[in-house]
Amino acid sequence: MNLAGYAFSFGWEVSLIEWLQNVITGAAAAFVSAMSAFGEELMLILILCFIYFGYDKKMGRYIGLNLLMVNVFCPMIKNIVLRRRPYFDHSGVQILRAVDSSADIYDISSQGYSFPSGHSASAAAVYGSLGRYTKKKPFMILAFLLPLLVGFSRVFVGAHYPTDVFAGYLIGTIVIFLIPLLDRAIRSRTVFYGILLLLTLPGFFYCRSNDYFTSMGMLIGFIAGCTFEEKTVRFENTRSPLRIILRVLGGGGLFFALNTLLKIPFSQAFLSCGTFPSLLVRTMRYAIVIFLLIGVYPMVFRYADRFFKDGRKEENASDPEPNE
Fold this sequence. Notes:
The protein is mostly helical. It is built from 15 helices and no strands. Helix 7 runs antiparallel to helix 8 (137-156). The longest helix has 25 residues, at 57-81. The termini are far apart.
């Protein structure tokens, strides 16, 4: 078991977590725990795929970049503060929803450190960006409500102290205002992306948890994919529910297929050992997957759109002529 890091907290934080876990039980506990999903990778990727592939790719790029910057900054801070999760050091706190359910709950490299809360920061970044971009009241309400539910859930499940959650909210909020501000101030996209990468690259020198290397790979792939798509592909969005569903399903299938395929050349022992070479491979794997997903996969949409258009033409041609 890897228990590296430091244990520090306010007394009221531990008492609050223990009290919540004793008071909230049964179906209510399952519901509160499930709220964490709104700040988890799978849910956020589905939301981004729906927006980017179907509804508005400009909005998708805006939200996606904010999310990935948060997802890189959080582990960079975590690997400096090195705060262990509540359940590591307090026997009265249970872990009800581990970050990585397939790994040892005490493995820092897989479960990550506690401060700040990545789930809370991600929720603030995605739903806050959605509200700020659309400026519509329903999304503004969601921008407040969903991060609140996610943060409460992360405290309840024993994964974070309340101060971790507050810090996550702060980081997510700063990013959704700072990154667009830099984007407007810097006219060259190349320079803008270069500055973002320079801000995040220092983590390679001291981070040793999976979350940083995963997020860094996704950020590199996202920047490369958006650049490639803007210059080469330039796909069109659609309001057709069927097309959006097919695009998202295809993207999800491609993500998992590529992620699995790129693991084949390496042994499971190497991929999970936590050494710098294995973490570097992790970064390159995610960079390739996200680049292909964001930049190359949309090429398929052209042919799919032609199929739908041809299908409508054939359907219209087969309609009987109206009676004179």
